[in-house]
Structures
1.
Amino acid sequence: SYNGTAQQNTSSLTTTGKMNTALSFDGSTDYIDVNKNSSELGLTSERTYVVWFKTSLTQGTQANLVGNYQWIPGNIDYGIGLGFKNGDIRIDVGNGTSTDQEFTWTPPSSYTGSWHHVAMTWDGNTIKLYYDGAEKLSQTAILAESTHDYVLGKWTDYWAAGKYNGDMDSVMIFDRALSASDITALYTETNETTLTTMMVGTDAISYDANGNIAVDRKGYQYDYDYENRLERIKDSSLNVIAEFTYDALGRRVETIEYDSTNITTRYYYDGWRVLSETDASNVVHRDYVYGNYIDETVMMVDHASSSDYFYGHDHLFSTVALFDSSGATVERYEYDAYGKAVVITNKGSDGIWYTSDDMVAMTSAKGNPYTFTGRRLGTYDSGAYEVMYYRNRYYDTETGRFLKRDPLRY
């Protein structure tokens, strides 16, 4: 994500949105400059624009939602813009000539005053328009790339009247042409606002339309992307306590913990196994060595303490002991029936493990993240919240529940 520059007539562009907070444009001076062009965003032959919009007006001659459409004197056009023209939804594709490639679709007259989802895809040959999750237009076109920055709410520098009057939420630009099922999933994900709530004892748990836990028994809330991957966790006051980023293969490549200090951790993989962890400055903190089994971690190199640690496992590949380079046991691990870990971090003054003076914690004092079944334990919200990362989904050890269904529907 990038922080754009707001050009505005009022002190704030924000308003109540489809999900949380939206951008509100006055149709006169308000717009957002993303400060990045296609090259800087990594957009080459394909792209997708997605936006939720709400307007009380039938937009005038020209009104842009999102794009990098560039018109210069002499009627030469570049880039792609998604917006409105005389009430129709319009896609304008510049081909580097004066020949205008304008594609329009007329939405229902009732579109004003409520939130609607619109998306545009370009696969290098065909432009498609989707409205509320359904394909409405498909046309071949020729694109000449624009060097113009992407903007929200404004058509082009040379068309002062091309400002959008209304609200926008969840604006997304992808570097590929999403499929029809992808677009439908994006629409459904944010349009299904009704949650299903069930009682587990005296605890209420709410699920979204895709079967993902949306609000757990402690009031923590979960946001998912269009592939149902967990993106962020919020506390009961809607403060974000953690965010997660994934690569094209679905592997988690970054976590951000929002605490007294924001901690960013990045992950580098061999297949599905983490080899190294770095901070936001790409300073390596830990390296890992594995055995034959995918979750068989045998060694952790902790660069902060210049220490090597070795793992002892049980039959489930759960970590049961951590040893230093001399072979001495430095931590022991116990689990309940659902995998919640208790870490014995010190054997106390008597020098004997499993006696009353042992020091006990919920997480490793050596920074070891691998616990139950060899998977990663994450601790957030100043230690008040724990969740385990199982690659394609997350697991709550206190309840023995995954936050979502298995992607293979197992």
2.
Amino acid sequence: GGYRLEPGLVGLASLGACSDAHECVEVPLINANMLRVVPARKLLTWMTLRPGDSVRRLRYGMAAVFMGCPALSGDIAQMNPNQRAVLDDALDFYVGARDVVQHGFPRLLTAERGASLRYPRGRQAVLFHDAGAARLLAIVHTFVEPPETDMRIPLPPGAWGVERAFGEPAAHRIDAAGLHLAIRDPFSAAALLITMQTPGAGYHANTAAPDETGTGA
């Protein structure tokens, strides 16, 4: 089984998937790495839902599928009302951020991520810029032993504001250094949709469409 993900085939295909690790904690790392090969609008990002999943687990997995085209499986019909509420909130959030993901440009921030994919440590962020660079989507995941400091994500010049958030409640602020997010519990996730309010000096919109074989991540 399996197939080869290489630029020629990616360019020809309408959709691709990267892994059967639908229920594993390394899914956010796999999805982020795949953005180096497959544009988000072609990347099926799977999550398998189970009745025993905690709210934190559901948020962790759903934030991971935001990196592409969400595909859900599992025991959705057996989920309780609290779990369904998380799922509904996640899908509603994704609808609002979909254009940023599928027509934008991802940047991977992995300097604080451990070397192992199977036993992830630290934390990572993926920042999507939309084609006009007026909206951003930040997706943050923590793993074993995340740093105790706030995560800082550099943003383009300008006045930015958080339009909507999904995931674990986490204090956040935006200043000249970027987005600061206080998310420190292991295996937690947060996604923030960020909108430009006033362009800053040195700001230039990137209006080129991402190519068919990759995203320049």
